[in-house]
Amino acid sequence: MGRPGYLTLPILSVLAAIGYVYYTTVFVAVARWLGLATAAGAANAAAFTALAAACVATYAVAVCRDPGRVPPSFAPDVEDAESPLHEIKRKGGDLRYCQKCGHYKPPRAHHCRACKRCVLKMDHHCIWINNCVGHENYKIFFIFVLYAVTACFYAMILIIGSAMYSVPVDEHSSNDSSRTSIIICGIILCPLTLALTVLFGWHIYLILQNKTTIEYHEGVRAMWLAEKGGNLYHHPYHLGVYENLISVLGPNIFCWLCPVSTNTGNGLRFRTSHDIPLSTPSM
User: Do 246 and 255 form a contact (C-beta atoms < 8 A)?
Assistant: First the structure.
C-alpha cells in the first residue's frame, strides 16, 4: 500500500470513472436529449459540471489531507479533572500505548497498518483515497460522498432521459455509438450509486451516534459483554443528535454542507456524555 496521498490504481480508477461518467452525461446524454445549445441543455450541463468539479475537489482534499497524527510527545494526564475518560487496553487495564509508534494513544486514536502511524479519531483506512479517514479529513470525506451520491442520481436521471429520447432515422449510425456509451455509463452508475448510497447512509448513522466505524464494531462487542454481565452499555461519546452533528460538521449550521474543515477540538480529547449536566436534555 502506498503512502497517503500517492496515486494508486484505485485512485486512478475513481478518476477514470468520474471522467467517463461526466463526459457521457454531458456530451452524450445531455447533448443527445436536450442539446447543449438550448437553455435547458446548457443549464443541466452547467449544473452537472459544477457538481462534478465539487466531487473532484473534495476527493482531492480527502486524498491529500493528513487525517491527523498523534503528536509524539502526547502523554495522558490521569490527574486531569477535565478529561475523566481514559481509554485502556482490553487486557491488563493499562493506558493504550502504541509499541510501533512509541507513544501513548489518545482516546479514539488507532494505529493504521497501511499508513504505519497512529491516526486521531480514526474511522477506517480507505483504499479508494489511499488514506485514512480521521479527525482532520472526516468531514471532507463525508461531503465528497454526499456530492458523489447526488451526482450519481443526477447522472442517472439524465442518462435515462436520453435513453428514452427518440433520434431521427438519418442519425442511426451516430445513435448506435451514443446508445453504446449510455449503456456502458449505466452499467457503471448502477452499482456505483448503490454502493455510495449505502456508504452515505452508514456514515449518517455514525455521525448521529457520534461513532467511528471502529467504535461501532467495538461497541457491538462491548454491548454483548455488558448484557452478558447484566449491565447496560452506553457509548460514552454520544452527546445527543444536535451535539453529535456539531462535533463533526461544525458549529455553524449554514456551513455543514460546505467542503471546508471546521473540526471541533484538536483530536486529543473529546467531550463525553459525562460532561453534559444532568439538567441538559439529550436528543
Answer: no
In a domain, 281, yes or no: no
Residues spanned by the domain of 27? 9-275
Residue-by-residue DSSP string for 65-101: S---BPPTT----TT-TT-----B-TTT-PBPEETTT
Residue 50 included in any domain: yes
Instruction: Answer yes or no: is 1 within a domain.
Output: no
- Considering the chain, what percentage of its residues have pLDDT values greater than 70? 83
The model carries a pTM of 0.87
The reply to whether 280 falls in a domain is no
Q: What residues pair up with 95 in beta bridges, in sequence order?
A: 88
Q: What's the number of domains the chain is made of? A: 1
Distances (CA, A) of 184 to 17, 29, 34, 48, 86: 11, 12, 20, 19, 52
Spot the catalytic one: 112, 115, 118, 126: 126
* Whole-number Å distance between alpha carbons of 283 and 225: 26
Residue-wise pLDDT tens digits, 50-71 = 999 999 999 999 999 999 988 8
Q: Please state, in angstroms and rounded to a whole number, the distance separating the CA atoms of residues 106 and 86.
A: 8
DSSP β-bridge partners for residue 176:
none
Query: CA–CA separation, 204 vs 245, rounded Å?
Result: 9
Scanning the chain, the segments in alpha helix (DSSP H) are 9-23, 31-33, 39-64, 138-163, 172-209, 213-228, 241-249
Asked if 150 and 21 touch (Cβ cutoff 8 Å), the reply is no
Alpha-carbon gap, residue 232 to 224, rounded angstroms: 9
132 part of the active site: no
* Mean pLDDT value across the chain: 84
